[in-house]
Amino acid sequence: MPGSTNPKAPKQIKVWDAPTRLFHWALVLLVLLSYLTGEFGGFDFTMPGSGDLIANMTVHMWSGLTILTLVLFRVAWGFMGSTTARFSDFVAGPGAIINYLSGLAKRVVKFTAGHNPAGGAMVVLMLILLIVQAGLGLFAKEDDFLGIAGPLNSLVSEDSAKILTTRHKQVWGYIELLVLMHIAANLLYWLVLKQNLIAAMFTGKKDAPDGATVAELRFASPTVAVVVLAIAAAIVWGITRLG
Fold first, then answer.
1. How far is CA 233 from the centre of its chain?
2. Per-residue pLDDT tens for 79-104?
3. How far is CA 89 from the centre of its chain?
4. Where are the domains of the chain?
5. CA–CA separation, 47 vs 40, rounded Å?
6. Which residues neighbour 222 within 8 Å (Cβ) at sequence distance 6 or greater?
């Protein structure tokens, strides 16, 4: 029955579906790519086999559009996806987050199949920052790097574009801080609390402590994920056509 518990949970249980795991690692690679191309935007490279010269900032723009597509997918998946992917499973109030962190400081960690309250808050904050960052990038223009502009740059004045470009750079600082916090938290769980959350995001499985109770988890169809991703891509494509 949905919502029932199994007092004798298996040693290793499946907690993450494939779409959630693919989203996570694709986002990791794309954020890294966006950082590198944004940091070294003045450099160009040649496409293997074609000889075409591609500006790093062009790659930066396409990376940002792909990130926006993935984030829109993840937001929808937070309502339509598997149990552990849904916002209803991991979004908690301030009280629950504080209680969890207080227990964490005492090394009293309650097993959670999906995101714990603190991790859930980090997920939501990261999604918000990435939407803001990608949204600003749609209007930005880098005059120092071949004058490459976002697809909606023509909709705003030059002065507005400069302000939005500045904000685009500033928001990255918050994303960078959140990424570092995320890495530190995963290392803490792995090295101190002996919970390898990184491996779980590869395999989709977590080791459940003896005696842990795990609510029944439902896993959404990968076909639904493909459809949701296609819709997200179509939305982003439509947005770029507005300029």
1. 16
2. 999 999 999 999 999 999 999 999 88
3. 17
4. 5-34+50-240
5. 17
6. 17, 18, 19
Whole-angstrom distance, CA of residue 210 vs CA of residue 19:
28
Which residues are within 8 A (CB) of 225 and not within 5 positions of it... i.e. 6 or more apart? 17, 18, 19, 73, 77, 81
80 contacts 220 by C-beta, under 8 angstroms:
yes
SS3 of residue 242 by DSSP: coil
52 pLDDT band (50/70/90 cuts)? very low
Amino acid making up residue 114? G
Residue 179, classified by CB atoms within 10 Å of its CB into exposed (0-12), middle (13-18) or buried (19+), is middle
Q: Residue 232 corresponds to which tokens in the numbers above?
A: 């997200």
CATH topology of domain 5-34+50-240: Fumarate Reductase Cytochrome B subunit (1.20.950)
Nearest to 206 by CA among 11, 5, 3: 11
Task: Note the pTM of the prediction, 2 decimals.
Answer: 0.87
